[in-house]
Design brief:
Rossmann fold; disordered N terminus; five-stranded antiparallel beta sheet; about 325 residues; alpha+beta
């Protein structure tokens, strides 16, 4: 798909709900995802993100609302007719088929001749740097290699939207970072829409053009990762995204990033007690409690911390610039 046709793959959810008996998993959400963009759905377990992805894929039917992909209402279409492809958390490769035949499988089901489907499968294996592994079985591959094969298998149907269900969760931390960079590169090169479910804030920050934070089946905020980090809309978003202190003031609740908190032995500021100090390499995370017992945190650069070490139990003053305080919606 070229950049000029990206608008055809815009994805829109209109008042989409999913109920399981008396339980509402997704509650009348509205969401617009621009064609050719990378969208991450994130939130804690049970927030509705996976149910949302499965409704887009057609593996679950929406209880209410409409799902529109590239201007076409796909709400009631079977999964195979939607123009989407799903890449599962477990990769779900067929253990008895070679890498080549795994990738070519969906074309075989569509009746494409062997030479044509194998040629297309080889092209996609080259794209994900797995061409030399075509004859191997999945059990002979590492987790990262299996993920690349699963991606190639999803891409062979030329989907308008690729749906990824926690695709990096099974990988070790080093490989996870590397595969994030590759996913982003593939998405830019291919030019179509990626919708990626994750519970990792770091993953969403690193990948998304649009990050959608969900809670109890509803969307708390949908914006660029930077906007969500700089200006969380609600207390839930501030706490979930991390590195923010939620502070009650006479005027209402505010969020202040932990790296905007300054600690001093005396002077102006809010009295706090140091609970713990955790070294993180380039910085030290200092856990604090105010007089009301609320837990805050301050991020202190390693050089500053070790020039004047802070001990648990110390009584300090915490302050921040007025411009660092971001008002939260109720």
């Amino acid at each position: 798909m070229t950049a000029s046709t990206n608008h055809l793959a815009a994805l829109e959810l209109v008042a989409v709900s999913k109920r399981y008996g008396d339980t509402t998993a997704v509650d009348a959400i509205d969401l617009k995802i621009a064609g050719g963009s990378y969208c991450c759905l994130l939130g804690p377990s049970g927030c509705g993100k996976t149910s949302t992805l499965r409704m887009i894929a057609g593996h679950e039917l929406a209880s209410d609302g409409d799902i529109v992909l590239g201007g076409r209402n796909i709400t009631l279409l079977p999964a195979a007719a939607r123009g989407t492809a799903m890449m599962f958390q477990s990769y779900a490769l067929f253990p008895h088929l070679s890498v080549l035949d795994n990738v070519a499988f969906s074309l075989k089901m569509k009746g494409v001749d062997k030479a044509t489907r194998h040629r297309r499968a080889h092209e996609l294996l080259e794209l994900v740097a797995m061409g030399s592994y075509a004859a191997r079985l999945p059990s002979q591959l590492s987790g990262g290699q299996q993920q690349r094969v699963a991606l190639a298998r999803a891409l062979i149907t030329e989907p308008r939207a690729l749906l990824l269900d926690e695709p990096l969760s099974a990988l070790d931390p080093f490989l996870r970072v590397r595969m994030r960079a590759e996913l982003k590169r593939w998405q830019k090169e291919l030019g179509f829409t990626f919708v990626h479910v994750t519970h990792s804030q770091e993953e969403a920050m690193g990948l998304a053009d649009l990050a959608v934070v969900m809670n109890h089946g509803r969307i708390e905020q949908a914006a660029s990762p930077r906007e969500i980090f700089e200006a969380p809309r609600t207390e839930f978003v501030a706490r979930f995204i991390g590195n923010h202190n939620v502070i009650a003031t006479p005027a209402g609740k505010i969020a202040v990033r932990s790296d905007r908190i300054t600690l001093a032995a005396d002077g102006d500021g809010v009295p706090v007690t140091v609970q713990a100090c955790e070294y993180q390499g380039t910085f030290v995370q200092v856990a604090l409690a105010n007089a009301a017992g609320e837990e805050w945190a301050a991020t202190v650069p390693d050089r500053d911390f070790f020039a004047a070490p802070i001990e648990p139990g110390a009584s300090l003053r915490a302050s921040w610039p007025a411009a660092a305080a971001h008002a939260l919606q109720a």
